Structures are given as structure tokens and as C-alpha cells.
Amino acid sequence: MQRVDTLSCGYKIVQDDKAFCFGIDAVLLSAFTKLKKGNTVFDLGTGNGIMPLLLNAKARELKSSHGAGDCHFTGLEVQPCAVKIARESVSLNNLEEQIEIVQGNICSVREIFPSQTADVVVSNPPYMVPSAAKANSTDEKTIARHEVLCTLDDVVGAAKWLLKSNGSFFMIHRPYRLAEIFSLLGKYRLTPRRMQLVYPKINQPPEMVLLEAKPNYKPDLKIEPPLIMYGSNDEYTSDFKAYCGSFLN
User: Fold this and answer.
1) pLDDT tens, residue order, the chain (249 aa)
2) Given Cys at both, which of 7, 68, 78, 226 links 37, Cβ 3.0 to 4.6 Å?
3) Could you tell me the pTM of the whole model?
């Protein structure tokens, strides 16, 4: 069943309970991503278009406070139903000039877009390999959560294809796949520059990792302070709320 939700930034988004609604990982990736004035931004696996909406809101805030903004966002999505609702969200917010939703597979990015056209590439890709996949209620959820139509190698390779020489790739993933992530970044000559681990609670293992990588950059990885989501009262910590800012509903 489809519904229209209002984000904390004021934008409206169409969501479909039968497909895949956005989660806190999109909020974290938006907060972690750095934008500059006039950036061309690509979102690989945009789903219902949550990342372009949140990042456009971020560019809007930066424009008013630091003179940034005027960015253009392209969301690439393979699933027709997700493309349809993402385009509806763009239209609902009158953002057709700022956001374009393109239907296509990440594996085919070289046939869809020219190389070195992006200042920023972001991705909240499927986390799980097919062998670890659990049955989901719909094919849409399976594709969104598991590497059915693209692999992590495809995502990193697509990011490298799109990025300009001074661009940045931002991704959120699971910490247990960090060894594979670093290996693939090396394969495509993307140098890890920033990393931040996200913990559900202070006494629990990390559940997510945020990464920034740049093409052919000197090795100089900065480890950001750990981010703790929940306190002992099971409410968001003050640090987490400050980190997410206006992205957090």
C-alpha cells in the first residue's frame, strides 16, 4: 500500500509498504556525505528517491548558511515500481530541475552515463550476498536487500566510472564486509579517506560503517569518532540527534 510521508526537511516522499521504505541508513549516509556548490551527484540504487531528496535539502541548507547549493542529483534505480514512486516524489516537491530519476542497472552504468561526470557518488547498496539471503515478502525487497541484480564489485566499479579525478564516493555498509570493501576500493584505485562506525548501543558491536573514498588519492585514512545511536533509556543519544540534524524525523 502506498502512502505519502513528510520528511523532517519538509519534503514529501511516496513510500510503498510492499516494496522497500527508507531507513536510518539513508539518514546516516546523507549526514555523512559532503557537498559543495554546483556538485553533480549520483545515487546508485536510489530506491524511492530518498537520498536525492535528503541531499537536496542538505544543499539547500548549505546554500543559505555557507553559499553552497545549486547541485544536481541523478538517482539510478533498476526496479520500475521504485522508479515510478521516486519520480512521483520529485514531482510532489517540484524538484524536476534539481533531481532526475533514471531507470537502469548499476551493472550497465558504463552504457548509461559518460565517465568522469560526477563530483559525488553515493550508495546505500544491498548489504547481503545471495547465499545469505533470507526470504522476503516481495521480490522488490529481495532486490533491495540482497545482491541479486548487482554485487558490491559492481557498485564500486560504477562509482569509479562516474567519478571525476577529484570526486568523492560515499557509501554505507555492514562492518563484517569491511575486508571485502577495502579490497574492492583498492581494485578500482579508490582510496579510503574517512570511516565511521555506527553502534546501536555503547556495549554492542557496530552495525553500520560509513566510508568516503577518493580516486587515486594518497593513503591517509581518518577514523571518525564512533557514533552511538541509543542510550540506556532506548532513546536516541544527543550526539546521534546532533549528527543527523534536520534529517531525523
Assistant:
1) 788 888 888 899 898 877 667 889 999 999 999 999 899 999 999 999 999 999 999 998 776 655 445 899 999 998 898 999 999 999 999 999 999 999 999 999 999 999 999 999 999 987 556 554 454 444 555 444 544 557 899 999 999 999 999 999 999 999 999 999 999 999 999 999 999 999 999 999 999 999 999 998 888 899 999 999 999 898 999 999 999 886 766
2) 68
3) 0.89
